[in-house]
Amino acid sequence: MNKKFFAGLLSLAMMGALVGCGGSKSNETDSKKDEKVETKEEQKGEAKSSDKVGETVLKLSFNQSIENPEAQTLIELSNNLYDATEGRYSIEVYPNEQLGNQKDSLESVQNGAVDMALVANTIIENVNPDFAIIGTPYVYDSIEQQQKFFESGALDELFATTDANGFKTLAAYSLGARCLYGKKEYKSPEDLSGQKIRVMQSETMTKMMELMGGVPTPMAQGDVYSAIQSGTLDGAENNIITYVDLLQYEVAPYFSVSNHLMIPDELIISKKVFDSMSEADQKALIKVSKESVPVAFKKCADLRDEYFKKAKDELGVTVTELDIKPFQEKLKPMIEEVAGKSELSKKVYESIKSIK
What we know:
This protein is α/β, with parallel strands linked by helices. The protein is 50% helix and 17% strand. It contains 14 helices and twelve strands. The chain has helices at residues 2-22, 25-44, 69-84, 102-111, 121-125, 143-151, 156-160, 203-212, 224-230, 240-245, 271-276, 279-313, 325-339, 343-354; strands at 48-49, 56-61, 89-94, 116-120, 167-173, 178-182, 196-199, 215-218, 235-238, 254-261, 265-270, 318-321. Helix 3 (69-84) packs antiparallel against helix 12 (279-313). It is globular. Mean pLDDT is 88; it is low at 1-44.
């Protein structure tokens, strides 16, 4: 009797297990949800490791596509870091704001939640105002002068100041001169009157656009396309690489070559993470980071040439060369004001002017 009873219980249990294996509707729904999430992430672009994967892989947050020349520079840097540390470290680049926008990424690096990031100078400027001088409109005569300055070592003292803010600044890159673009041509400061133009989230960028004649609208990069499309923005300002890579020409087909700004992007690492590395590995990271600067400038220069040609010949973009003097005149007082904020800012500005 007992044997039959227990056999019956065992049979019921097996039937229940089979039903569970067959999957309920809720399980099927969860599976489909997971599938949708994966599809969305694939559309955003997967994280990209270098060819050589170290014992410790540092996660790096990046706000643009993995094809961007800065991202490609970082992948190359990762290979060099692997070699320099004998396989102890490498870097994995997470593109398209997967680990957060630039502001959030900086905060995550500060608290150690994210190892590294490449963020715009304007974001760091909110932490240390002295960074504003290297991202001031028309402070550089050319992209060649900017590259010489970044490679000169003159930024070391400025970079060292961020150690106290929870992150270490390793190097600065530049995608090139930023220009105006929108739903119409911007040929003069008067053309910007009443135009809502996206700027990066900093006091310097807001003031810049006011002086240029537009209505500054601070916004994260990931929201710009839809904002122009919906009419929340009339236009934006950025370099040709970002403009083409993020398909912004689809909603803003007029590109005005104002060359008003060569904003740096800084490579940063969490101070907690940096301090956990051996002294030899710290030196290796600093060395390969500095060596990556000319690599980034070369990759960006090559792609700028390609994209300007593509924009005009294939994408239907109206590219307008401007007389920039009216914009320079309006922005000249800003350089003097920013340079005069502190002794360090003045020192950095004098270093820029000394390089030809």
